[in-house]
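Case study B.
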Amino acid sequence: MSDSETSITNAHQYLTFILNGEVFGIATNRVLEVLDYTHITPVPQTPEFMCGVINLRGSIVPVVDMHRKFGLPASERTVNSCIIIVSATVDGEQTSIGAVADSVREVLDLDPATIEETPRMGTRLNTDFIRGVGKHNEEFILLLNIDTIFSAAEFASEALDEIPVEESGG
Amino acid sequence: MSDLPEQAFREEAQELLTELETALLELEERPDDMEVVGQIFRAMHTIKGSGAMFGFSDISNFTHEVETVYDLVRNGRVSVSKPLVEISLQARDHIQELLEACCSGAEVEHKKSAALVEELQQFMPDGQHQAGESRDKADTPVSDEQELCTYRISFKPHPHILQNGTKISALLNELAELGTCHSIAQLSKLPSLDKMDPEQCYVSWNILLTSTCSEDAIRDVFMFVEDDCDLGIYLIDTGEGGEEERLRLGDILVGRGEVTQEDIDRVLAKSKRIGEMLVEAGLVEQDQIEAALQEQKVIRAVREERQKKKQEQAPVASSLRVPAERLDELVNLVGELVTVQSRLSQVAAQRHDADLDSIAEEVERLTEELRDSTLNIRMLPIGSTFSKFKRLVRDIASSLNKEVEFETAGAETELDKTVIEQLNDPLIHIIRNSMDHGIEMPAEREAQDKPRHGRVFLGAEHAGDSVIIEIRDDGKGLDAEKLRQKAVSKGVISEDDTLSEQECYQLIFAPGFSTAEKVSGLSGRGVGMDVVKRAIEALRGSIELTSTPGQGTTVRMQIPLTLAIIESLLVTIDGGSFILPLTAVEECIELTKEDIEAAHGRHLAKVRGSLIPYIPLRKTFGISTEAPPIQQIVITKTGGRRLGFVVDNVIGEHQTVIKPLGPLYKDLRTISGGTILGDGSIALILDLVQLMHQADAQEKNLESDHE
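Model:
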């Protein structure tokens, strides 16, 4: 391991994980921990991609299904399935959120110079969610923008479609 | 932690400002009450003093001006009037603004300060402003904690004192820094101009110093000139005893050795004013008399002040000031402990071990006590906010030209600090509504044989583990017909809906509903009673309104004592745990498959002869699995109605430590939070009122679909 000698600059380090065979990356300074997949308590009347909540050492942490969030086909839970706990800013409030991934791979150092801008089209994802595209061993890594993924507006708009209308004429 | 003293100042100032407001409002009612004036003066004085100490010179300078006026009021030279109280209240608000500006580092509004000071100065008799200033400078360092002593200092410099470069003015200034200082120059030795040697000092001084410092400290001031003067320092008032003893001018003069007792007796026989007589008799000089008179006055003032302070200090209980965050932390820890305790009880129940059982029981008892006393710490009497409302009512009344009396009751009722804070806005809104729409103009009231003064009543009282807050006015009440028409025109209800009068009144809680014909500056700024209702419901409370035309409106709110931990009923639906607040629960009954079939799709349960509607939560939550053959209906009192909630199983009572679900779930109304159960799993807390609203809305949609 050569990175023990080099000074670690968190901003250029990414935790990579797999969703549906594709490689994604989250800046490590936003990752709090990675948990094994555990029982998630479902919360009724919420959009489908919001799996529910888990008990993280006494705090209640919401968990989001990244497959559904990104409109990818759902995949089987395996022993490698895990929950990545990230720190995100929602509505100006710092909060912990869990993201379900098929598996986590490794922590990568990416040279900022090699990170390319998100292509306008073709990613099949909302481009606001992507911060850029990194390249490692001839493999593309979609680097996620945590705060936009979990922004409350994003949730509210989707929530409205799925929750039965609460009040008429309101 | 470097800004700790400033933080302390801010908190102290905030308290003083509240005190000040209460006192000012009291003063308005009883303009002759000198005790209140004293209170105001002291509050200002302390703000000024500590403001200066922490470098908030804007605050201290401005407060000083206000204080000067009240000093004059205290001395009877300015009388209390309504405009004075008005401007003082504005000044108080301005101090608050300054305080906030200073703390946030924002730009200070000097213009406003200047304008207010100018207005204040109009209350001062001419030339008083300067006098007040010079004296107050000396006032500042007086510490309130130690006993104040008054010293008489007789300072008679030798004629040659100026020749070695002594600056007498500097000495006197130094003395003035020790405390309140009154100095009177004795000019009797001053020769006529042609005989005067400008390098000689002919003047001596009589100085009265009221200060907490010791005699030595005073001697230190004169340390370098001791050999060039005759210095006498006499302690004339120590604050211990002698309060009732009257100080007579004659006694003072005798004490000073200016006259003998015989002289006084002789002169007294002529029974004129003693001062004049002594001067006439050539026994003392006019300025000596003046000095003595000054002394008499100062000592009286000092003694009065002390007396007042003693009365004030007596009822204050000893207390600690603790930052709110530390308390929150403690409450959190107790919450964790409650969770662990329930786990312990659960384990103990499975083990059937008598020793373990007894320990678990003991822990349960202790935890409960600990929980209660911890939550108690956060309890504050709601009265602390009442004075603010008093001010509000006063301001609104004068801006609407209405005459309103504000009455309060139950100020000692205690509520969780955060609850009190969150009640603030709703209460303001309701009081505003009462005054704007409820209370009529004085003339209108008289025409209806009502007293000119409208009444607004704000009361609080305990009821079980919640508090009832009531706001009552004796205004014109709500117009049910007008409300109905408005609701129809806004599409809240349809034309053929028949509503009882009381039901019509509840319409004002509907979103986007405003009853005022025209929008006034006070109410109707786009915030309706629906916002109030939502705020109260966010506190897990309920609100209802009753009104009698011509006699007034009453708004009643029921608020839980605390937000952190609630007694609740634990139930399960499809393997998931849910929590219902126990206060709402009335009873639980069974719901069998046969019952459901017999009801033909209607959600009504027969409970001892009465029909109670119920909400099948499985359906509400979109759970598609097969329901157990026997479900349970939890009958509750929700939003003033009896309403059942169908669940799979009722587990039992549970102490619920409420945890927020976080910002991601903030749009989810029907679940108000979560809690962690003894086995580490999560139970969700149901918001019954919101569930009811949702069911109501769905029903309405269903009806309109059928049409």
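Chain A has a mean pLDDT of 78. The remaining cases will be described in the next quarterly update.
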